[in-house]
Amino acid sequence: MSCVVCIVAFPRVFLRRLDAARAPNIANPYNKEGMAFTEQYDVVVVGAGHAGCEAAMASARMGLKTALITMNMDLIAQMSCNPAIGGVAKGHLVREVDALGGIMGEVADAVGIQFRLLNTSRGPAVWSPRAQCDKQLYRVKMREVLEAQPGLHIRQAEVVDLVLEEEAGSAQEMDAPCLRSAADETGDEVPAELPRPARPHRRVLGLKLRDGRNLLAGATIITTGTFLNGLIHCGEERYPAGRSGEPASVLLGEALRRLGLRTCRLKTGTPPRLDGRTIKWDMFEEQPGDADPTPFSFRTKKIVQPQVSCHLAFTTPETLRLIRENVHRSAMYSGRIEGIGPRYCPSIEDKIVKFPDKTQHQFFLEPEGLNTHEVYINGMSTSLPMEVQWQMVHSIPGLDQAELLRPGYAIEYDSVDATELDRSLRVKCMEGLYLAGQINGTSGYEEAACQGIMAGINAALWLKGEPPFTMDRTEGYTGILIDDLISKGTNEPYRMFTSRAEFRLHLRIDNADRRLTPHGRRLGLINNEAWGEYEQKQARMAALENLLIGSKVDPGKLAAADLGELGTVAGQTWAQLLKRPEVSIESALIALRDELAIQPLLAELTRLDQDPAVRRAQLRNEARAVETEIKFAGYLDQQKKAIEKLKAAESVAIPEWIDYSVISGLSREMREKFERVRPGTIGQASRIPGVTPAALSLVHVSIRLQGAGRMHATSQVNATLSTNAKVG
Ligand code: FAD
Q1: Best mutation site among 69, 71, 238, 415 for ligand 1, i.e. most ligand atoms within 8 A of its Cβ?
Q2: For ligand 1, atom 43, which residue shows the shortest CA distance?
Q3: CB–CB of 450/97 below 8 Å?
Q4: Cα–Cα distance between 703 and 701 in angstroms, integer?
Q5: Index of the ligand 1 atom closest to the CA of residue 48
Q6: Cα–ligand 1 centroid distance for 240 (angstroms)
Q7: Atom number of ligand 1 nearest to Cα 53
Q8: Contact 279, 402 (CB under 8 A)
Q9: In this model, does residue 169 exceed pLDDT 80?
């Protein structure tokens, strides 16, 4: 009786949770071969890397009891490679995660030891923040943030299997594939006999841990990074590992293969690390950070860590000779590695083989933290044997005495073909199973984090019985990344570039909050304080824009703003003047000082240059965002029209029931492409590589035809039923 009351009182919100738990016998909802669930959660996240931390945090903040299971709790949010967050396009992703209410930006701000705003010599669309972080502090801070979150339970364990429930209701461990692994059997080919649209839907009920425990989970998010069947290569040596010093995840890798998901073998690599005390620093060009650091998070007021410099260095002819002579010993070139590496983050041996005419290659010496002497060699990723790495490093003046603390290595691992996922990152043929991060074929902490928050949000929404939260290509780089992955998959580690965006002037770092924070607020990820600050910021920006639009230029004040040479300005407003490339918002703020001072919302802007206590970076960036909107208003309007066109294609949904096999005129090749991806919209279908406009219009027409056929069939069934009822 009380159970019924619960369901009535909380319609939908708890339905899936109750369903998952098979209440009332929650502690042991079913018993097969003595299996009992020892712990019960709404959401279980497997892996506490960059995807897992965001996923678990989002789910817990949305009010769901969440477990974060990881192999080693001391290595939560470990930066497997470079201890840096952000960079071109990656910084955009961090801003988007932050705008939605994620944690990567705030953690990086708290432990960043060198901040740089990249690409400032180019347009605002491609400005992007980057921070060298203290690697150890990043882990510590992330764990602190996670541990402070109510409803989030961190557990150290290895997940070895999933527990499934068939649609029919019988529980079992995974053994029967839901789809033959196409990649396994035919390389990249789709199996000749494609599955019919309705694949057997199964539900993930929980997880098996290596220590014998079984966890009950309403939804499961797998974020296992490079660990699935990971294999490290260092010269001629190779051994199973998830990353250096950590075991591979072999049993879970096998379990996912048995599930029948299409998989791919990828690889990535990392450079050797040096002891900074053995580097002759004065022989390298110093590269300091920005004097006025730009934080990642919209909620960070100030960067507090002491800032350090990186150093610029170059290979020598001797380095190149050593690499050329030993390249056959690199795991990459000896044929021992099957996996495909990141084209845009090549190893040093890759660079030398692919660009034989280049006489030198640049790299950076980057400190790994404030309390360590360890130094990362950015640009020297390698899988050459250790003794060659040693010689290579020593061939560079200033590193001739350097001690190697850790060798560089390459790692191969399994990833899942992301065309197996829908836009909410749910595995299409499974109920309650989500994948995020490197497991989906991406590379990079930021690419992982943005998927993590989306998977966490969507697992929570699904359990609450609410529609998924998805982003299209016009709303964020996160939307672009997910759309690319689920529409095309990837056969090399996917990383984000600004060139992947069709409308990059719209997807700037400065407006990520305007694009996404209202969503974060609605989802429950933005607290009252942050929301209040967001609203104040929008009010400040609107006030500044109105001032610029409404204020006529006073020629007498131009000289003080270094704008004495502008020529005729009579009758123009500041907004009109700002459209000239030589006029900047900084000059406008100087000339408008008196007007700013009398507006309570804007008075702080008058102290930007004098008062070190002012939130300088924050206010300056707000003013620049207003400037961008004014300066590029023409382009932005043009792009808005193109965005509307794309959104129109996105709004034509392709129903799940569509049967491609009966669309007459559709070639076998097109049918296979549609079956493989099963796109959700005509827009997504148009982005499947090789899909023709003719095939698209056939699908478009078939949606109506097949829909009409289904309605006809339904009405006939209804008519028969009512006749039978009357007869009865
Ligand atoms: P990870 O950060 O790898 O986290 C995976 C988590 O899953 C870990 O916490 C692990 O303990 C846990 N886990 C795994 N299996 C299980 C299990 N069965 N049970 C419980 N927990 C489990 N990115 C770049 O952008 N540039 C680079 O140059 C670069 N180089 C790299 C070099 C190396 C050698 C490696 C290993 C990675 C490199 N990366 C690079 C990639 C970057 O580290 C990843 O993209 C990022 O960490 C992926 O985040 P993730 O959350 O998906 O997985």
Answers
A1: 71
A2: 80
A3: yes
A4: 5
A5: 9
A6: 15
A7: 51
A8: yes
A9: no
Which protein residue's CA is at the shortest distance from atom 40 of ligand 1?
444
Residue whose pair of structure tokens reads 């694949």 in the numeric block: 199
CA–centroid distance, residue 6 to ligand 1 (Å): 41
pTM to 2 decimals?
0.87
Question: 12: phi > 0 → left, psi -120 to 50 → alpha, else beta; which?
Answer: left
> Residue 396 has what pLDDT?
97
pLDDT of residue 697: 87
Residue 329 to residue 385: CA distance in whole angstroms:
7
Name the residue of 80, 246, 266, 337 whose CB sits within 8 Å of the most ligand 1 atoms, as the mutation to test its pocket: 80
Which run of H or of E encompasses 393? helix 386-394
Instruction: Say yes or no to pLDDT of 540 above 90.
Output: yes
Q: Whose CA is nearest to atom 30 of ligand 1?
A: 81
From 142, 350, 443, the mutation candidate for ligand 1 (largest count of ligand atoms within 8 A of CB) is: 443
pLDDT at 21 over 60: no
Given a cut of 60, whether residue 515 has pLDDT beyond it is yes
Closest residue by Cα to atom 14, ligand 1, is: 224
- Amino acid at position 198, single letter: A
Question: What tokens appear for 22 in the block?
Answer: 């098979």
Q: What does pLDDT average to over the chain?
A: 87
216 within 8 A of 204, measured Cβ to Cβ: no
Average pLDDT over residues 38-45: 94
376-432 tens-digit pLDDT = 999 999 999 999 999 999 999 999 999 999 999 999 999 999 999 999 999 998 999
Instruction: Report which DSSP code applies to 465.
Output: T
For the stretch 280-285, contacts whose Cβ atoms lie closer than 8 Å and that sit 24 or more positions apart, written own/partner, are 280/397, 280/398, 280/399, 280/400, 280/401, 281/311, 281/398, 283/397, 283/398, 284/311, 284/312, 284/313, 284/365, 284/398, 285/311, 285/312, 285/313
**Ligand 1 neighbourhood includes 69 CB (under 6 angstroms):** yes
- Beta bridge mates, 112: 133
pLDDT, mean of residues 11-24 = 41
Return the bridge partners of 68, or none: 45, 154
* Structure-block tokens of residue 371: 């309390």
Q: What is the pLDDT of residue 563?
A: 80
Q: CA-CA distance, 487 to 420, in Å (whole number)?
A: 9
Given a contact cutoff of 8 angstroms between Cβ atoms, the answer to whether 108 and 146 are in contact is no
702 ligand 1 Cβ < 6 A: no
Question: Sorting pLDDT into bands at 50, 70 and 90, what band is 473?
Answer: very high
Q: Is 243 in the pocket of ligand 1 (CB under 6 A)?
A: yes
CB-ligand 1 contact for 268 (6 Å cutoff)? yes
> b/e map of 489-504 (b: 16 or more CB within 10 Å)?
bbbbbbbbebebbebb
481: closest CA among 119, 50, 92? 92
Residue type present at position 684 = Q
Tell whether ligand 1 has an atom less than 6 A from the beta carbon of residue 81.
Answer: yes
Q: What does the pLDDT look like over 342-384, one tens digit per residue? A: 666 788 988 888 888 899 999 999 999 999 999 999 999 999 9
| pLDDT at residue 617 greater than cutoff 50 | yes
451 lines ligand 1 (CB under 6 A): no
The structure tokens 């845009």 sit at: 344
User: Where does residue 86 fall: left (phi above 0), alpha (psi -120 to 50 degrees), or beta otherwise?
Assistant: left
Separation of 226 CA from ligand 1 center, angstroms? Answer: 5
Question: pLDDT tens-digit profile of 236-257?
Answer: 899 999 999 999 999 999 999 8
